[in-house]
Amino acid sequence: MRQRAIILFILAFWLGAAGPARAEEELVERYYTMIDDRGKVICRTAHRVTPGDEYLAADNRLYRVERLEGETARVRFVRRARLGLAGVKPAWKAWFSALWAVWAGKRQVQADEKRPIAIFHTHSDESYVPTDGKSSIKAGGGIYKVGSAMAQKLREQEIEVIHDKTPHDPHDAMSYERSRRTAAKLLEKRPVCLIDIHRDAVPRDEYAESINNTEVTKVQLVVGRQNPNRSANEAFAKQIKAAVDKKYPGLIKGIFYGKGKYNQDLAPRLILLEVGSHTNSREAAERGAAIFAAAARDVLYNAGRGAVGGPMRRGSYTALFWLLGIAAAGVVLFLLLNGGALSRLGGNLKQEFAGVGVEDRSDDGSDSSPDDPG
């Protein structure tokens, strides 16, 4: 009975893990407010917040959600992050990456190779009320124009951009599953990075900003906590923030680490951006996106160049994970289904080693080891 329960648990785990990408939920006409132990508001977001989520604020102070009180998230200060070290690999990690590249048959990216930046929109309906008239426009949201503004700024700097405008409506729990197919197709174009552009749904002042007396919106980066590429995507997000902070401090309002994947398990440089809120004007969001693109240009374009394996390979590490996991599960199932297999294996090994001890002695009974001083 116990063996059957364990078998069912393992099967349920693997079948559940291998199922469709879990949707990342957002609130509608409501939002969460993160507050520290001093009563200071750290962030407001329409992303569903759960204990364990984290937020790296504009001043690089990292907070972690401890508990929820309705739509108030109580957070505690963890540490101050050092973005200057983002993306620097320890020697052992670089060595492992090199071995993996050889094993996977990846090739060295040539210095003169040009690859595009890819942009798409999971929530293709998202719009900006002051300009678009409403917060949602099916299959034609104002968010497309914000993406176009970013793409245009990158093209002005001689960077190839693929701006995919595939709609993924409706804006429901399966949006990320639908956009996952779009992201997978874009990855076949071998982009240096992939950007999923959204807008938030919080009060206007959360994103309102002014640069050179011009109204713009801030930008928020989002990293999924539950994906095998979290470390790589987090390093990429921190590199972006460090680069933009040098030119426009405060333009990036923070990095939200939320429960979920946001399709970031597909690639190590797939980042989600929130450009303004539905309460900001779309023109301000377009300017914010353009300024962000200009400031982050070098990181966005050069992140994958010159690195072993360069192009993002969809599912490489994930496939290896599943192969190893399935193999391990198979071994466990075999041992459980063959109750005496483990004990028989131990007995056989014991006999083999006992036999080796006998065969190592010479015919006359003396030890033939060359280390014997006799």
Which keywords apply here?
9 helices, 2 domains, two-stranded antiparallel ribbon, 20% strand, 13 strands, eleven-stranded mixed sheet, Aminopeptidase
SSE topology:
Layout: H1 2-17, E1 32-35, E2 41-45, E3 54-57, E4 61-69, E5 72-80, H2 91-104, E6 117-120, H3 129-132, H4 143-156, E7 161-163, H5 175-187, E8 193-200, E9 208-211, E10 214-217, E11 219-224, H6 230-247, E12 252-258, E13 270-277, H7 282-302, H8 316-337, H9 341-359
Parallel strand pairs: 1-5, 6-7, 6-8, 8-13, 11-12
Antiparallel strand pairs: 1-2, 3-4, 3-12, 4-5, 9-10, 11-13
Would you mind describing this structure in some detail?
By secondary structure, the chain is an alpha/beta fold. The protein has two domains: 57 residues, no CATH class; 205 residues, Zn-dependent exopeptidases (Aminopeptidase, 3-Layer(aba) Sandwich). The protein has nine helices and 13 strands. The chain has an eleven-stranded mixed beta sheet, sandwiched between helices. The protein has a two-stranded antiparallel ribbon with strand order 9-10. Helix 6 links the parallel strand 11 and strand 12. The N and C termini lie far apart (59 Å). The C terminus is likely disordered.
